Amino acid sequence: MTAPLLEVRGLNKIYRSGGGFLRAPREAQVVKDVGFTVGRGEVFGLVGESGSGKTTIGRMLLRLTEADSGEILFDGQDVRALGPAALRGFRRRAQMIFQDPFASLDPRVRVGDAIAAPIRLHGLRPAGSVKDRVVELLEMVGLSAAHADRHPHAFSGGQRQRVAIARALAVEPELIVCDEPVSALDLSVQAQVVNLLADLSARLGVAYVFISHDMAVVRHLASHVGVLYAGRLVETGPAAAVLGAPRHPYTRMLLAASPRPHAAGRRERAEATGEPPSPYGREPGCRFASRCPHAVAACRAAEPPLDAFADGARFAACIRAAELGPETAPAPEGAPSPAFQTRMALLRAARAEGRAASPDAPA
Ligand code: ADP
Ligand code: MG
Questions:
Q1: Is the CATH number of domain 39-67+79-222 3.40.50.300?
Q2: What's the mean pLDDT in 33-61?
Q3: Residue 51 CB–ligand 1 contact under 6 Å
Q4: Which residue puts its alpha carbon closest to atom 10 of ligand 1?
């Protein structure tokens, strides 16, 4: 039996701040006991509000931030135990794309050179054919040879993100951690880049850990999702099941707050209410209890385990998940909300026209 591409177990991260000679530092547990599996070529969507620990998890997966404890197994090998040489090999197989395409490219380096650098570093092509490979990569992301000689400032946000994708693909990775790769882009450009990422994953068989706070984007891309709340996964499972019939009250709140197909109509788009708890000195019990409309006394007694239910493929950390049941999930009533319809229509239109493979603005 071959190992899954990525297996994460019991991941924890505590940040310490302040403190001094006589004062203990304050501790914030920003990632708590996170585990999930990503199969080869699969897209795992990691969703949660800002500050829930998504970026910290993404960075820990690639050893850009060290985890405090837990296991990260990539193709069966223990990523946390890799020495410098093995880490370089791992970095060829697992890449990251960041939210801000302006920060992730050096303004002084022509994009052709930026894409060629990792090819040369890892010796992936003979010197004479690096340029051809760069052109091939530019075309793969909907740009062309003419773009290679330009500097990043000549590119739009969407085009820069395409360059970042080409650079990530240059090493022929098996996994890309995409950290909110479209959040900084205009809505219409978001659709094109999301479709480009979907096409590339399907075409090249590359897997993504796709980090986003946008349920519509995750629904479009991911086969499995994990819903993160205050550093902990509170619900996981197949995307269609989790987003179609959420069991955890927080997943429901997120979906109700985001434009989605089953909302709207008579039902107004709800706001997510309340604030996540402070990561400094948490109360005992369920971390969502203070915002949960279904909380009872038992919820404040102990942290609920992430339990399997239904066919064993879904998990929710809620002692009332079974009792609340799918029948009390937001009913598929009314028409999709206008905002969600717009988003999905853009995604579909971009796909139909094959615009995913064309640049979003002339350079
Ligand atoms: P997200 O990506 O979901 O917005 P982050 O992983 O960036 O969440 O942050 C999770 C929590 O960890 C936040 O409360 C944030 O303030 C805190 N945090 C992130 N990086 C650091 C750091 N280097 N030092 C201290 N706290 C941090
Ligand atoms: Mg983040």
A1: yes
A2: 97
A3: yes
A4: 53
